[in-house]
């Protein structure tokens, strides 16, 4: 079993309605293949965590890499795991909205609200994404660029 984490950017702006339609198909596919995952979307940028059988997860990642709707695909982590962190979640789709009080988004709070526990590298990568790392779009969803590296 492996855990693979990647980021990418949508080739074109993606509406909430379109994403919700796609998520249903993605969830069905993941369930049929024994894949558990979390898909975060912020400003048309994505972070996905995939867990499952090595050959199946690698095949899905290669399929994503060939998808013209994704660009700037970046493999952030690929590691063997003994225990999945996302068991029983074929696809948890999260499109967080910045809180009105201006407080930063929290990976731990999002996970807690979804009913799973983050730890280690997964929590660090997810929090880094929420903080702006690996983003390729300006907040209005236009003009691809990297907002922050490092």
From TrEMBL:
One Pfam family named in its UniProt record = BLUF
From which residue to which does the signal peptide run?
none
Domain BLUF residues, every copy = 1-92
- Protein name per Swiss-Prot or TrEMBL: BLUF domain-containing protein
To which species is this protein native? Answer: Chromobacterium aquaticum
Q: What is the lineage of its organism?
A: Bacteria, Pseudomonadati, Pseudomonadota, Betaproteobacteria, Neisseriales
